[in-house]
Write a structure and sequence with these properties.
This is MerR family transcriptional regulator. One of its GO terms (biological process) is regulation of DNA-templated transcription. Pathway: Lipid metabolism; Phospholipid metabolism. Helix content is about 50%, strand content about 15%. The chain contains 16 helices and ten strands. Helix 2 packs across helix 3, helix 6 crosses helix 7 and helix 9 crosses helix 10. The longest helix has 29 residues. The chain is elongated. The two termini are about 55 Å apart. The protein binds S-adenosylmethionine (SAM). S-adenosylmethionine binds next to helix 10 and strand 4.
């Protein structure tokens, strides 16, 4: 212990030193023992005066019980931090799952800092996978999806239905995470507007540009290769923001918050997301989605988040079974084609599991479309 600390203890009356003839201060064996006890109590969260009261007076059991609760909380929190550090060191999955759930944007930055480019980082996050063998995983993943037109559930009719519920006449439209443009092309054919389609995947954008050229009547469509998390537009630019199956990549709540600034007053946001159909999700379903989409919510929770983010919900509806079929049927065919040469691929196995899981449990969850208006200033 430092000299200053000893003198301070003395000043508070915790110990009683005395000055020897040579000027040194002498402490008794009892003082030394008291110091040890005081230090332990102090580390447990008691102030020095509370330490003194505890040693010199009748025990204040309420005070100690309160400190005990706090101490238990601190230990639990330290345990979590320890667990996190351990899984970070060994690159285990729980760290990725925790980070995706609790700090999605910071997690993306962290992946970038580890040397993953934006597209890889997104795909890791997308699939909430640990990064072991990620090169192989990425290659397989791209090989499987490159040929598919849809990269998520959706249908022509559902896009048109959502569009019919948009209450304004949009002149400026942004399609975020447009992929190969399944929805962009429908918007282009049905709106008299300037449409900007943004995605991080260059080849998908090239595909979209070619598709647009082959359409008969269309609005103007610009494509931009960029991230939904750093959108290069001025505030209040768009009357309509469209995002099918993509808001979850940065987290729906975060998307609601940050895209709002880009909408004009009473501008409209249309997005689709995977939600639980019921409050009482079975353990099997909860466990599966906890690792595949940790931020998945019930429909009611998403509705609440919409209103808390300053939007008015105009309509929402469940995408029909054909939306899933449009995604899973071509995917299943692709899997069947690739399986003989890729039997050991983790990416392929994950997708097979996902389809099997859907077939067994699809009544518990839904792809849902939300049409919301930017009403309140927050
Ligand atoms: C599930 S797909 C949906 C694609 C399309 N909207 C559809 O319904 O077919 C998600 C899309 O988001 C894109 N994406 C992923 N991360 C992104 C990001 N940070 N910014 C923009 N697009 C992103 C992916 O490349 C992919 O095209």
């Amino acid at each position: 212990m430092s000299r200053t600390a000893l003198l301070y203890y003395e000043k508070l009356g915790l110990i009683e030193g005395r000055r020897a003839d040579n000027g040194y201060r002498i402490y008794s064996e009892t003082d030394v023992q008291r110091i040890k006890l005081i230090q332990q109590l102090h580390q447990g969260g008691l102030s020095l005066m509370e330490c003194k009261m505890t040693l010199d007076s009748k025990l204040d059991r309420d005070l100690l019980a309160n400190r005990l609760v706090k101490l238990d909380e601190e230990i639990a929190s330290k345990q979590q931090s320890r667990h996190l550090l351990a899984s970070l060191v060994s690159n285990e999955k729980p760290w990725h799952e925790m980070a995706i759930k609790n700090a999605p944007s910071a997690y993306m930055q962290w992946l970038n800092a580890q040397g993953f480019n934006a597209q890889e980082a997104i795909q890791i996050k997308w699939l909430s996978k640990a990064m072991t063998h990620h090169d192989q995983y990425m290659n397989d993943f791209n090989l499987i999806f490159d040929e598919l037109l849809r990269w998520g559930p959706g249908s022509h009719n559902d896009t048109l239905k959502a569009l019919s519920k948009v209450p304004n006449t949009p002149r400026t439209v942004l399609d975020i995470g447009c992929g190969k443009g399944a929805s962009t092309c429908i918007l282009a054919q049905n709106l008299d507007a300037s449409i900007t389609a943004i995605d991080t995947n260059k080849s998908a954008l090239t595909f979209l540009s070619n598709e647009v050229m082959s359409l008969s009547k269309t609005a103007t469509v610009y494509t931009i290769c960029g991230s939904m998390e750093q959108l290069p537009f001025h505030n209040k630019t768009f009357d309509l923001i469209w995002s099918e199956g993509a808001a979850y990549i940065m987290g729906v709540e975060q998307a609601l918050k940050s895209w709002k600034a880009l909408l004009t007053a009473n501008g409209v946001l249309v997005f689709s997301d995977l939600v639980f159909n019921t409050q009482s999700v079975s353990e099997e379903v909860a466990t599966y989605w906890e690792q595949a989409y940790p931020d998945m919510q019930t429909l009611d929770t998403r509705r609440l988040q919409v209103s808390e983010a300053g939007y008015e919900l105009v309509a929402d509806f469940s995408l029909g079974g054909s939306a899933w079929n449009n995604y899973y049927q071509p995917l299943q065919q692709r899997i069947n084609t690739l399986l003989p040469e890729m039997a050991n691929s983790d990416a392929l196995k994950c997708l097979i599991d996902e389809i099997n899981f859907y077939n067994a449990h699809h009544e518990a969850y839904d792809y849902h479309m939300f049409i919301v208006v930017n009403t309140k200033r927050l």
